[in-house]
Predict the 3D structure of the following.
Amino acid sequence: MTKTIKIAVPMAGFGTRMRPHTWSKPKPLVPIAGRTVLDYALDQFKSLPVDWDVEYIFITGEQGKAPIQKHMEKFHPEKKVQYLIQAVMRGQSDALYLARDYLKGPTLMAFSDTLIETDLSFLAAENADGLAWVKPVPDPRRFGVAQVTPEGRVTRLIEKPQDISNNLVIVGFYYFKNGEDLIDAIEEQMRRGTTLKGEYFLADAVNILLERGQIFRTVPVEIWLDAGIPETTLETNGYLLHHGCDNSQRYAGQDGLVVVPPVYIDPSAEVSHAVIGPNVSIGANCKVSEAVIRNSIIGDESTIDQMILTDSLIGDRVILTGQPDRLNVGDNSQITR
């Protein structure tokens, strides 16, 4: 019998740290390395057992549902997706509770603005009640951490710890053998009123499952990428370009164009009399001339003329003309000097 796994992806946040780009698009649709953050997030699930049926549950904000649904229908029409709206931001557990009618049986939960490299094929033989993917980091205080036994069994999760003695950070990727158990724990979390700064964090629901005797273990990851702020989005863009997304060979030897790998230039873009790279992504139907661009992302249909850009994040339909700069410019902007 075919096994079905539900994949819940909360993505209803306002994206305040990615403004001005998230004024005009939801954060999962910010471009990196020739695609969107959401496209790369979906790639994480390609290694699921091939005979499993996959159903996605996207919990979006009111303004994000339509563009995300349009993107999925255009680029991922084969995927089965349910869309729910989290109108009030009350935290991760609250978002998942909105999906309670769908989260039955094996369930994965992943954030839409972080990416990991992991092989999920082992889930076919997994016996634990739950899994938390983890990575040690120098300073864990912005994240949640897992307390584990020497054998790797989770004893407790701590959200935003005050010290750095335990640096085993949860990377925002979970597996639950039974989604119904998770929903029941979230209901108990809400009855207790267990919140942090007014939000229901998933770590506290997992702690209730641990109290009830469920067995959770950790899964280590080496690669954990972030696309939640402009600086780390540029870093993630560079990593992806270095690991399979570079198409610089397409432009080798083109007159008037120097390409320093890795880069991604959309085939529809017009680029001339320019030095591009390293770590540059240029979107569809862009026009770039007499420019030097390094470590930057240029959105679709933008025009860059007589500019030197470094460490910049440029939105869609932007016109830039003038002098060297480091810019973070949202969609439909124009800067001329």
